[in-house]
Specification:
Distance between the termini: 78 Å
Number of helices: 13
Radius of gyration: 31 Å
Number of domains: 3
Number of strands: 5
Shape: elongated
Strand content: 5-15%
Order of helices and strands: HHEEHEHHEEHHHHHHHH
Structural class: alpha/beta
Strand order of the largest sheet: 2-1-3-5-4
Largest sheet: 5 strands, mixed
Length: 296
């Protein structure tokens, strides 16, 4: 019977590089079997996605180990801690995993946890039994893993609770990115702040790809490519040309006139340079007044 794939399990861990995947396939073909069993929960693979894909591709036998959890969140916590010591994780990959686990737990239990519980895989208790199938040996294991909260995850991970909550927001944003961009953000080949990821996530995926390409081609940050968004009026009202003109005169012309006068005094008097500057200022003021009245 074919095993099932759940994206939330598969995508929780860093993906193997092309070279690593090729090496794994070569090892399995050389051995003629999948040495490490495929681990499943409720029919879904929780460990061994790549091994399973290679086994299916080459019709190679494999063993199956079955784990039982109370929730998907518990399964995800097991995946995270089981894989954490086996692969090199970037900071963003770890943040993404923490965020996904927290979000799943919150959805399942509303963020509540069982008293005295821990979500570390080394605290899981399990019993196993083995049987033979046409694909090899099948080991059934029942594992008990407790609920998690931001507080518990933070304590186990040695981070602040606020960090876990930020991780959840980050994970939600990352999941809105086009697949190649998501991978680049998580493996940190694309340098993007959480704020830049959020901005990208709010745009259509075709536009995301154009922005990222422009950033890579120019060597600029995503923020630089996007530019600074225009400021909005706090009141939400449009300002009239007359009010804007008066504001310019009040805010810039008067202080500048005083500054030029002070500078002239410091230089010993109001000479030709001062007169030329004032003349230029007067012309600017005249043009602003014309624009104020609607004359261009």
């Amino acid at each position: 019977m074919a095993l099932k794939i759940k994206s939330s399990f598969r995508d929780l861990c860093p993906k193997l590089s092309e070279d690593e995947l090729a090496q794994l396939e070569e090892n399995i073909l050389t051995d003629g079997m999948v040495i490490n069993p495929i681990v499943v929960y409720d029919g879904f693979i929780v460990d061994g996605h790549n091994r399973y894909e290679i086994a299916q591709k080459h019709n190679i036998p494999y063993e199956v180990t079955r784990l039982t959890f109370d929730t998907d969140a518990e399964a995800m916590a097991w995946i995270y801690h089981h894989q954490k010591g086996r692969r090199n994780w970037t900071k963003k990959q770890a943040a993404y995993a923490r965020g996904k686990i927290y979000a799943e737990e919150k959805q399942t239990h509303g963020g509540e946890r069982k008293s005295g519980s821990s979500y570390q895989s080394d605290n899981l208790k399990s019993t196993t039994k083995t049987e033979t199938t046409k694909t090899g040996t099948k080991t059934t294991s029942t594992a008990k893993s407790p609920s998690k909260t931001a507080e518990r995850i933070a304590k186990e991970e040695g981070v602040g609770q606020a960090t876990v909550l930020r991780n959840a927001t980050f994970a939600e944003d990352v999941d809105k990115l086009a697949a190649p961009i998501k991978q680049s953000v998580l493996n940190e080949s694309l340098k993007a702040t959480n704020a830049e990821v959020k901005t990208l996530a709010q745009k259509p995926k075709t536009e995301q790809q154009k922005i990222v390409k422009a950033a890579k081609d120019s060597g600029k940050s995503i923020k630089e490519i996007l530019g600074t968004p225009p400021l909005k009026q706090k009141t939400g009202r449009e300002i009239s040309p007359a009010k804007l003109a008066d504001s310019i005169i009040l805010k810039y012309y008067s202080p500048l006139a005083k500054g030029i006068g002070k500078l002239a005094e410091m230089n010993g008097g109001k000479g030709p340079a001062y007169k030329a500057a004032r003349s230029a200022m007067n012309e600017v003021a005249r043009q602003i007044k014309l624009m104020r009245s609607g004359n261009q």
